[in-house]
Design brief:
Length: about 500
């Protein structure tokens, strides 16, 4: 049995009340690790450690080059340890071998990219005054102590999407992974501990909503960076409002994949299946609504059905498994409940709909395809976060755009067409933060990522992602040392 402790102020510690939680493998529901479960006191200790590490300047006072070098060290050590990290991620989350292998590379790549971006000088001198009157500097300063709260679907990537830009900006952090996937985060803590990062700069604690709530409300915290459901995002925004904390929210989605009538159908069907079923649909950007016009409707549904029948369900450790278990029993039940809702709402169940035969011991759900879905149905409006694709018929291209935008979410979208100009025209009309043309799921660490509408507030990744961890200070340096030329008291400001 593996055992893990909390990582606070550069030390690995048991919980102050000795509480422990289980790490469960969703493939066979076995407990494979015991983890210390943080109490509110432990949470406060982690925040205090981050506060002290910020205030004593041990990290924020470092030069960009020095911060960059430590972030690169973290990246390289992630690469060195990727086999172990991958094995743990598969065990705790049910991620398939293929998906988790990519996760390891993308976690490394995110850290490496931020190591490079950390070298960027974000300060500016503004050209706003007449020469010789004043100099106006815009200084980017680290925002301070960050509470980072993340979900379970891409555990290490999500951790690095928060840790690396916050470190690049000069912040200190307390990170809380989801309870389902805390093992890989605490293994990451060991990696971070073996680098030159000063103690207290990164702290990693486990726990559930109660711990998260303390991280959001604690007065020593300056910023909350949250990735998770829209439901919890709303609570976080409300709780952070009490002390007017800066928040970044990366929330849920119900993204629409639109196949235009001139699309290459082989590409569009494979791509839409990838959009909807990759990682069992447990992706914030999953293309969980597929919008088709009459022309392609029957053919695409038939092709998709045939494709799903070929997908290999199995042990996520096997290299050829396409569909592993859902992350947990809770998530499995949620998805099965939504499938029942879809049937009751009158959608046509074309494929799947239950637990695959022979896989009852794990948290499995068959890849499921609903056709003839009305966009007002719950299965088209709510985020299921499972392998359930809703096919919706549109009259034409404009109707497809209308349906795609008729959602409270706005995280991502996609357009399939042989005509890039036509697809671009549609892409511009979609109210979403990321839109793919003839592609899905590819994100670039240098391009900002985030959602419109209830899919979030702010952006992660790229330079925007570092700026999200900074405050801007304007310094006005007056260069006229002449009392008579100062427009103070009864003198009006000169107009141009
Ligand atoms: P969740 O919202 O249930 O939990 C996310 C995290 O918040 C967990 O660590 C959880 O312990 C914590 N939490 C729960 N209640 C809290 C509270 N009241 N205060 C503070 N913290 C609290 O989400 P999940 O089920 O872990 O993950 C799935 C969700 O994440 C989906 O909705 C998905 O779309 C979203 N997600 C979004 C993105 C994105 O970038 N937009 C990326 C990945 C996942």
């Amino acid at each position: 049995m593996l055992e893990y402790k909390l990582y606070i102020n550069g030390e690995f510690k048991d919980a102050s009340d000795n509480a422990v939680m289980d790490a469960v493998n969703p493939y066979d529901r076995s407990v494979f690790a015991k983890l210390a479960k943080a109490s509110i006191n432990d949470t406060k200790s982690a925040i205090l450690a981050a506060r002290e590490a910020f205030d004593n300047g041990v990290w924020q006072a470092k030069k960009n080059e020095e911060r960059s070098a430590v972030i690169k060290q973290i990246a390289d050590k992630i690469k060195e340890n990727s086999a172990l990290l991958q094995e743990l991620e598969i065990k705790e989350s049910g991620s398939t071998y293929k998906k988790s292998k990519d996760d390891m590379f993308l976690t490394y790549r995110a850290a490496s990219t931020f190591a490079k971006l950390a070298l960027t000088d974000l300060n500016e001198t503004l050209d706003i005054s007449k020469e010789g009157v004043s100099k106006n500097l815009l200084i980017r300063e680290p925002i301070g102590v960050v509470s980072a709260i993340i979900p379970w679907n891409f555990p290490l990537q999500m951790a690095m999407w928060k840790i690396a830009p916050a470190l690049a900006a000069g912040c200190t952090i307390v990170l809380k992974p989801a309870p389902e996937t805390s093992v890989s985060a605490l293994e990451l803590a060991k990696i971070i501990d073996s680098t030159d990062l000063p103690k207290g700069v990164v702290n990693i604690i486990t726990g559930d909503a109660e711990v998260g709530q303390e991280m959001v409300t604690n007065p020593l915290v300056d910023k909350v960076a949250f990735t998770g459901s829209t439901e919890v995002g709303k609570i976080i925004m409300q709780n952070a409002a009490a002390s007017v904390k800066n928040v970044t929210l990366e929330l849920g989605g119900k993204s629409a994949s639109i196949i235009l009538d001139d699309a290459d159908l082989e590409l569009a069907v494979d791509g839409s299946a990838y959009a909807g079923y990759f990682h069992n649909g447990q992706c914030c950007v999953a293309g969980s609504r597929l919008i088709l016009t009459n022309k392609n409707y029957d053919e695409v549904v038939d092709r998709l059905k045939a494709k799903l029948a070929k997908m290999k369900i199995g042990n996520p450790m096997n290299k050829d498994t396409d569909i592993g278990p859902m992350v947990s029993e809770k998530q499995q039940k949620r998805v099965l409940d939504y499938i029942e809702i879809g049937k009751k709402e009158g959608a046509k169940l074309v494929y799947g709909g239950g637990v695959p035969k022979g896989f009852e011991t794990g948290c499995f759900v068959e890849p499921t395809l609903f056709a003839d879905v009305d966009n007002n149905m719950k299965i088209a409006q709510e985020e299921i976060f499972g392998p359930v694709l809703a096919v919706i018929k549109a009259k034409d291209e404009n109707d497809a755009v209308r349906i795609a935008n008729a959602s409270s979410f706005g995280l991502a979208g996609g357009v399939w067409s042989k005509d890039n100009e036509r697809a671009l025209n549609v892409a511009k009309k979609l109210r979403a933060g990321t839109v793919w043309i003839n592609e899905w799921h590819l994100l670039n660490d240098k391009a900002p990522f985030g959602g419109y509408k209830q899919s979030g507030v702010g952006r992660e990744l790229g330079i925007e992602g570092i700026k999200a961890y900074t405050e801007i200070k304007h310094i006005h340096i007056d260069e006229v040392l002449d009392r008579k030329k100062k427009f103070w008291y009864n003198v009006t400001i000169p107009q141009d």
